[in-house]
Amino acid sequence: MNCIKQEKPILYTYFRSSSAARVRIALNYKEIEYEARPVNILLGEQWSEEYMSLNPCATVPSMIIDGSTICQSIAILEYLEETFPHKPLLPKDPVQRATVRAIVDAICSGIQPLQNLSFLQTLPENERANYACKIIAKGLNVVEKMLKKSAGKFCVGDEVTFADCCLIPQLYNAYRYGVDISKLPTIRAIEVRANELPAFRAAHWTQQQDCPDTLRQQQK
Question: Where is the GST C-terminal domain (predicted)?
Answer without folding.
Answer: 93-213
